[in-house]
Specification:
Length: 135
């Protein structure tokens, strides 16, 4: 992939991660949630849908040829949230606070900062989009 394609993939991961974890601001509280805890409320299928969607984000991240240690942490974040998310109601509250997709985005951006400085120069967010999100 060339730099333009890499940035397009990174931006797709950013948008989808924010959609799932921080897209909705709760008025008065200043706290943000995404679709993840809302979809998780669907009995039986919600957590499966959330985990599959997060798996798709990891699939996109593999295009950056991540080392197994980074991929391992990403999978851990998804599985941890997926397993705890199956507990009715308490799991959905946990989903709202844990934000596994944003955690994985941070892992990806940190890795790219260290391994691909040329991508950082081309990225308007300087590979620091997670720090710019009010979580």
């Amino acid at each position: 992939m060339n730099t333009t394609q890499r940035l397009a993939t990174l931006n797709r991961i950013r948008k989808l991660s924010r959609l799932m974890d921080t897209s909705i601001r709760i008025p008065g509280l200043g706290f943000r949630i995404g679709l993840d805890p809302i979809i998780g409320l669907i009995p039986g299928f919600g957590d499966v849908i959330d985990t599959a969607f997060s798996g798709y984000l990891i699939f996109l991240a593999t295009r950056f040829k991540l080392p197994t240690s980074v991929l391992g942490w990403m999978v851990f974040n998804i599985m941890f949230e997926g397993i705890l998310g199956t507990v009715p109601l308490i799991g959905d509250i946990f989903d709202a606070f844990y934000k596994s997709n944003i955690r994985n985005l941070k892992l990806l951006e940190d890795h790219l900062k260290n391994t691909e400085p040329e991508l950082s120069k081309s990225d308007p967010m300087d590979l620091s989009s997670v720090e710019k999100i009010a979580v």
